[in-house]
Write a structure and sequence with these properties.
Oligomer: single chain
Radius of gyration: 19 Å
Number of helices: 10
Number of domains: 1
Helix content: over 70%
Order of helices and strands: HHHHHHHHHH
Distance between the termini: 36 Å
Largest sheet: none
């Protein structure tokens, strides 16, 4: 698990900047925040491309940038500037088309790696860009700043709660996940409890952003927190599996004391789609 210093760096520097952008730069449906999401998605796509190359799944840097940025960019065009919603599916389909057809006329030697290359392009198209685009899609909801802010808190503080619970109570229950042996049952439970509390706190403190839906507002908040928390935990574990398979410790070194961009957004990328879906089902 990440060190105390790394967590302090995130919450003293990173979160305040993001909060300021979300709450004080709402122009064009928070286009400034969308730019941040696009940039981190592109950086994550390049890191994922390097992981894939370790397994002979070759994607060029240009392809990683283009494929990794398609979904966040089109989501920003729709949410921030009112582009037709259909553009998202159309552009994503073009990315799939490129992955499947860009080497149709390649030489026989190149065709031997066609499956590997196509699979790599499809992977970069989806992770993290397509998954991260759901954070931008959250900006289409009323009171988007608060909706996204609580998504970030539920996800990021889940990891911190897991770290604290693991340090205090995880000594005898670690090693249940081979890809991340330092994580413990106590840590998972601690993270889920934090996400549960934050989900309920959001619906209680900000009923305008989380209007009453199908259930009591606290029940809806609990469901939202638990589902997003579970998505965050699975995202962290999935990235650990990817790194172990690629034989690397960190996805990169872009963030001092923390590793690569994927190390920072692994939980966000997998929690974003489920948070978006559950929010849409329960609060709209």
């Amino acid at each position: 698990m990440k060190s105390l210093f790394q967590r302090l760096l995130l919450f003293i520097v990173g979160l305040p900047i993001i909060i300021c952008v979300l709450l004080f730069l709402p122009m064009y449906n928070h286009f400034g925040f969308s730019i941040i999401v696009i940039i981190v998605s592109l950086s994550g796509a390049l890191e994922f491309r390097n992981m894939l190359n370790q397994k002979n799944l070759t994607v060029s840097k240009a392809e990683a940038v283009i494929l990794g940025g398609l979904s966040p960019l089109t989501a920003a065009l729709v949410v921030c500037f009112g582009a037709p919603v259909e553009i998202q599916d159309t552009v994503f389909s073009l990315g799939v088309f490129w992955a499947l057809s860009s080497r149709v006329f390649a030489s026989k030697e190149t065709l031997d790696s066609f499956v590997n290359r196509s699979a790599a392009c499809l992977a970069v198209l989806i992770y993290p860009g397509f998954l991260m685009s759901f954070i931008i899609r959250l900006l289409a909801f009323p009171h988007a700043g608060l909706v996204v802010l609580f998504f970030l808190l539920i996800t990021l503080l889940n990891d911190s709660g897991a770290w604290a619970a693991g340090m205090l109570f995880g000594k005898g229950n670690r090693g249940i996940i081979p890809a991340s042996p330092n994580k413990s049952v106590a840590g998972f439970l601690g993270g889920m409890i934090v996400s549960l509390i934050l989900g309920m706190a959001g619906t209680w403190l900000f009923p305008g952003a989380f209007p009453k839906g199908r259930f009591h507002f606290l029940v809806s908040g609990a469901i939202l927190g638990l589902v997003a928390g579970a998505g965050a935990i699975l995202g962290d574990l999935a990235e650990s599996c990817l790194k172990r398979s690629a034989g690397i410790k960190d996805s990169g070194n872009i963030m001092p004391g923390r590793g690569g961009m994927l190390d920072c957004i692994d939980s966000l990328s997998t929690a974003a789609p489920v948070y978006y879906l559950v929010f849409a089902l329960l609060f709209t």
